[in-house]
Amino acid sequence: LPLVTGVQEIRAAKQLLEECKQELAVQGIAYDDNIQVGIMIETPAAALIADLLAKEAAFFSIGTNDLTQYTLAVDRGNAKVENLYTTLHPAVLRSIRSIIRAAKEAKIPVGMCGEAADPALIPLLLEFGLDEMSVSASSILKTRKIVSQWSQKETAKVEQKAMQLDEPQAVEEYLLSVCKR
Questions:
Q1: 114 DSSP 8-state letter
Q2: How far apart are alpha carbons 3 and 110 in whole angstroms?
């Protein structure tokens, strides 16, 4: 479910799904009775209540492009402010980390689409505990190689330092410096 902002939206969608299942059953049309309902975490509202949403969703997918845009109130298509748009902003990184933590606590899988293939972001995503990265077909091998080069000890050090930085430029410079290995 995209652009979720509250638990009531998940519950309403699940109710509609159940109604559709009943209609299909009455019509004798086969369907998968075990459909998993997951949500996209793309809004600041969803990020802030990820722990509540995790009780209703079977999985999370973090939509970093929208989450970044809405968290920073920056239209990435507006040339006048697009320089302010960055997933490496401390607020966005903290949101991503808290979303992943909420999923882990609820024991549901969490994936990411959007910036998951960014080599500078990979060590943080690994340390945060991201389960799945959605990347373009042309990025799969490069991303797998980068993932394989990091140990948990190294990613922990990167997270500790990066999450203390208070400016996006400082985060970017630091992450780029440690990714040039």
A1: S
A2: 16
114 pLDDT exceeds 80? no
Question: How confident is the model at residue 180, as a pLDDT?
Answer: 78
Positions of E strands within 16-74: 39-41, 60-63
- Are the CB atoms for 87 and 119 separated by under 8 Å? no
Helix (H, G, I), strand (E, B) or coil at 151: coil
Q: Which two tokens stand for residue 23?
A: 């209609």
Sorted by sequence, the CB contacts under 8 Å of residue 63 that are 6+ apart come out as 2, 40, 41, 42, 113, 114
Give the gyration radius of the chain's Cα atoms: 18
Q: Give, rounded to a whole angstrom, the gap between the first and last alpha carbons of the chain.
A: 38
Asked if residue 93 has pLDDT above 70, the reply is yes
CA distance linking residue 136 with residue 181, whole number of Å: 23
Summarize pLDDT for 42-79 with one digit per residue, the tens. Answer: 999 999 999 999 999 999 999 999 999 999 999 888 99
Q: How high is the pLDDT of residue 181? A: 62
Helix (H) or strand (E) segment spanning residue 122: helix 122-128
